[in-house]
Structure formats: structure tokens, C-alpha cells
Design a protein that fits this description.
single chain, alpha/beta, Spore Coat Polysaccharide Biosynthesis Protein SpsA, Chain A, 4 helices, 4 strands, 24% strand
């Protein structure tokens, strides 16, 4: 069986970039992923977008929390991660199609 990878994406006011970021994660060639979106108190539509993505993909888990900064958001994701491996992706970045298949 393939090992589960927890992908933690801290999110704060990145509604402009968020869709592309999430699309590159959900479309990976390695699909045994737990995708944890941590909305760190966004004041734009980022939190709403996270909830919309959760409805589209059962691998997505959304955490909404008060703003505490990048480290706080990453730690909130780590607290609920269940994967054998953990990856962090910045919410304004995107990843190549095979990244998790190659890295695992």
C-alpha cells in the first residue's frame, strides 16, 4: 500500500493564487494525499474558497483559526496530520505534477 502524505498549506489572504495552488496538489500523479488547508484568519475570500475546495475533493481537510502567523498555521496542520510524511506548500506557489511521486 502506498504511504499517505500529509500536504499542509497555510493560507492567509491569497484568494488570487489559491485555486492554482490547490489544483496542482489535487492533480498529482501520486494521489494518496491528505491535503490540509489551514486558513490563518484570512480577511479576504480565502477561507470560503477552502470550504468550496473541501466539497470538491474528499482528501481535503480545512482548519479555520485566528491569525497567528505562518508557524502557527503550519503547527495547526501538523497537529491533525495523519500521513507517514509531511509536506509544506506555500499557498501562493504551485508544484509540478509528479513531485510527490518522485519525492516519496
Amino acid at each position: 500500500m502506498d504511504d499517505l502524505i500529509s500536504v499542509i498549506i497555510p493560507i492567509y489572504n491569497v484568494e488570487k493564487y489559491l485555486d492554482k495552488c490547490i489544483e496542482t496538489v489535487i492533480n498529482q500523479t501520486y494521489s494518496n494525499l491528505e491535503i490540509i488547508l489551514v486558513d490563518d484568519g484570512s480577511t479576504d475570500l480565502s477561507g470560503k474558497k477552502c470550504d468550496e475546495w473541501k466539497k470538491k475533493d474528499k482528501r481535503i481537510i480545512v482548519v479555520h483559526k485566528e491569525n497567528g502567523g505562518l508557524s502557527s498555521a503550519r503547527n495547526a496542520g501538523i497537529d491533525i496530520a495523519t500521513g507517514k510524511y509531511i509536506s509544506f506548500i506555500d499557498s501562493d506557489d504551485f508544484v509540478e505534477l509528479h513531485i510527490f511521486e518522485v519525492l516519496r
